[in-house]
Amino acid sequence: MLLSLEASIPPRRALEVFSIPLLLLVWVPPGLSQKAHPEDSNLPKYHLHTETKTNGVIDEVSLARALVKGSDRLMFRDDKGNPVWDWRTGK
To answer: E-assigned strands of 1-91?
Structure first.
């Protein structure tokens, strides 16, 4: 007499038996592949003493068409008000 796999393992138990190794197979490799950042990395650090807080009231909010500083002029929008830069590329 041959015993089938279905008769030897109840369905709920089979779900438990196969789901645990599957979850481990999915979760463990990404976790092991991440690198820990060293403490002396070149990432910028947050310095509390350089923090600046300001208080004030905003009088008016308007969308800037152009920014002028000295002899430089940076255009944000054309004459119709459409952006002259592509938000997807930042150019």
So the answer is: 66-69, 72-75
- In angstroms, the CA 18 to CA 10 distance is 12
Which tokens is 19 given?
């789901």
pLDDT, tens digit, 9 for 90 and up, residues 29-73: 888 887 776 666 676 777 778 888 888 887 876 777 888 888 888
Buried (b) or exposed (e) across 51-75, using 16+ Cβ within 10 A? eeeeeeeeeeeeeeeeeeeeeeeee
User: Residue 82, exposed/middle/buried by CB under 10 A (0-12, 13-18, 19+)?
Assistant: exposed
Query: What whole-number distance in Å separates Cα of residue 68 and Cα of residue 46?
Result: 31
Q: Where are the beta strands (DSSP E) in 4-83?
A: 66-69, 72-75
Identify the CA nearest to 76 among candidates 89, 66, 91, 63: 66
